[in-house]
Amino acid sequence: MSTDPRVSLTVGLVVAVTAVSGGAILVRLSDAPSSVAAFYRVLFTTLPLAPVALWRYRTQLAGITRRDLGFATLSGIALALHFAAWFESLAWTSVAASVTLVQAQPVFVALGAWLLLRERVTFRMSVGIAVAIAGMAAMSLGDFLGGVLVGPRPLYGNGLALFGAVMAAGYVLAGRSIRQRVALVPYVVVVYGACTLSLLVIVSVEGHALTGYPPSEWAIFVGLAVGPGLLGHTVLNWALAHLESSVVSVSLLGEPVGATILAFVFLAEAPTTFTLVGGAVVLAGIVLTATASRT
């Protein structure tokens, strides 16, 4: 009996979004410096992919031009800054606010494509961007002005999450044209390699140790790689071959919802009213932006 491909895709997306949603919880459970956790997440995601790239895609790897290699390196650096900023934001603001704000990257991709690539912004995209920005302001300022805060420095944490979203957008924009010429596995190995080295520099500059952590921390590092890294983003990349990118992008909006529920269950962290309402507005803006037609 044949399996309905729509069921497989639905199951795949549910698995991917669930795996990605757990990333913020694992970061909060870790006592290691955020840059160290980010470093090992990317390193442990890259290690199983590198042999595949070297064995099955060695010709494509050797054929990457200097220009594409340069942009892939920039993409990796942007991804490193995304992880470093987002992981650190989780120490200062709520999981709900951090994950929602960092998921705003489609908004910044649209803005960056307009500013840097001269891509046209449709009216619906403009409305989506405006709605998302209004939601961000409500999330960041509402709790502060209302005097009910979740996290030691929510404004600082929210700012880091937004910076992480901007860097994620840079990662997408830098890699947009390269993926049309380079296969997925060699591309991500080059990007993840650059990201790993960049995070290693950040860890060194901050003066953190790479060893001496208890087994529980190593389990979290591996969990970050296997869950959000391999099961999350790998499955999403598989889904992109069968679904429109807008559908996959919008499915990722389940991450803030899932992460908020998991934070309540495992961390006893209840989001404030401003975070919930502002987050809903941000998600609505992202939906409008991600599903807007460019034609």
TrEMBL record:
<feature type="transmembrane region" description="Helical">
    <location>
        <begin position="69"/>
        <end position="87"/>
    </location>
</feature>
<keyword id="KW-0472">Membrane</keyword>
<feature type="transmembrane region" description="Helical">
    <location>
        <begin position="218"/>
        <end position="240"/>
    </location>
</feature>
<feature type="transmembrane region" description="Helical">
    <location>
        <begin position="93"/>
        <end position="117"/>
    </location>
</feature>
<feature type="transmembrane region" description="Helical">
    <location>
        <begin position="155"/>
        <end position="173"/>
    </location>
</feature>
<keyword id="KW-0812">Transmembrane</keyword>
<feature type="domain" description="EamA">
    <location>
        <begin position="157"/>
        <end position="290"/>
    </location>
</feature>
<dbReference type="Pfam" id="PF00892">
    <property type="entry name" value="EamA"/>
</dbReference>
<feature type="transmembrane region" description="Helical">
    <location>
        <begin position="274"/>
        <end position="292"/>
    </location>
</feature>
<feature type="transmembrane region" description="Helical">
    <location>
        <begin position="129"/>
        <end position="149"/>
    </location>
</feature>
<feature type="transmembrane region" description="Helical">
    <location>
        <begin position="247"/>
        <end position="268"/>
    </location>
</feature>
<feature type="transmembrane region" description="Helical">
    <location>
        <begin position="185"/>
        <end position="206"/>
    </location>
</feature>
<dbReference type="GO" id="GO:0016020">
    <property type="term" value="C:membrane"/>
</dbReference>
<keyword id="KW-1133">Transmembrane helix</keyword>
<feature type="domain" description="EamA">
    <location>
        <begin position="13"/>
        <end position="140"/>
    </location>
</feature>
<protein>
    <recommendedName>
        <fullName>EamA domain-containing protein</fullName>
    </recommendedName>
</protein>
<feature type="transmembrane region" description="Helical">
    <location>
        <begin position="38"/>
        <end position="57"/>
    </location>
</feature>
<dbReference type="InterPro" id="IPR037185">
    <property type="entry name" value="EmrE-like"/>
</dbReference>
<dbReference type="InterPro" id="IPR000620">
    <property type="entry name" value="EamA_dom"/>
</dbReference>
